[in-house]
Amino acid sequence: MKSKISTAVSQIPLSGIREMWKRAAQYENVISLGIGEPDFNTPKEICQQALQDALQGATHYTQSQGDPELLKAIQMYLYGRLGEDFSIPQIVVTTGGVGGLTSFFRTVLNPGDEVIIPEPYFPPYRHHIEWVGAKAVLLQTRFENGFVPTPEALEAAITQHSKVLLLNSPNNPTGAIIPAETLDSIAHIVLERDLLVLSDEVYERLLFDGRTHESIRTRPGMKERTVVVHSFSKSFAMTGWRIGYAFGPEWLIESMIKVVSS
Q1: pLDDT (tens digit, 9 = 90+) per residue, 205-222?
Q2: Domains in the chain, start-ordered, CATH in brackets?
């Protein structure tokens, strides 16, 4: 019966992380450097509010874009974090951060399009790109450069089929943060080559040693071509809740909502 499985899915290997979990379970006192999971539970205040809302009947379908109250809360959160007044049509709630990634890919990619991804990268990126018939173009980074993609390497990776640059900063798995001056150069190339940007910023609040994070969408000309993916999983220790959101230009989010609702 395995022949009934689609070719696209059959060609995707099982997650290496899951395989390592199985092996690690055979040993004691194993230190996990695997999945991005906070070492504490979801704060009680969040759990209590969710329970209260559920008991009061907030258990039904919401609009496709997301629950209006949640959308408003995200809007206020983004204003507090970024100092920018987003409109509600610029935001969409997704099933975790991965839901934002897949919705974006299904919205913008056609068969044969190319997505440039700096290595090392979060493994599901490639799978979701290939599922829609597009191609992942891997951009090598080097230890001596802090695993940060260089503008020169990016320029060399672009072809006539390039459509999207996927950035993940802070990076999973390396923790690398793209410096401000590198973001400037990358943004210049993106504008010059007319690319879209998907910026996975799920780890944007996990910063140490006084380091700061900047989004590429803050660069001139980038807001109209960048979608940012966030998740409640890391920032609020809500990995099991599977709640994420994406924000960006209204023209693009509007089409992502079509995908989310389908």
Answers
A1: 999 888 999 999 999 999
A2: 64-261 (3.40.640.10)
Residue with tokens 């001056």: 181
Beta bridge partners of 144: none
User: Any idea which residue has 């504490």 for tokens?
Assistant: 40
Query: Whole-model pTM?
Result: 0.91
Rg (CA), the chain: 19
Distance in angstroms (rounded) separating the CA atoms of residues 259 and 262: 5
Q: Listing from the earlier edge strand, what are the strands of the sheet with 243-247?
A: 91-95, 243-247, 226-231, 196-200, 162-168, 114-118, 135-139
- Region 58-71: mean pLDDT is 95
Q: How many helices (H) and strands (E) does the chain have?
A: 10, 7
Contacts 24+ apart (CB under 8 A), 133-140: 133/109, 134/105, 134/109, 134/110, 134/163, 135/161, 137/162
CB 101 within 8 A of CB 229: yes
Say whether pLDDT at 2 is over 70: no
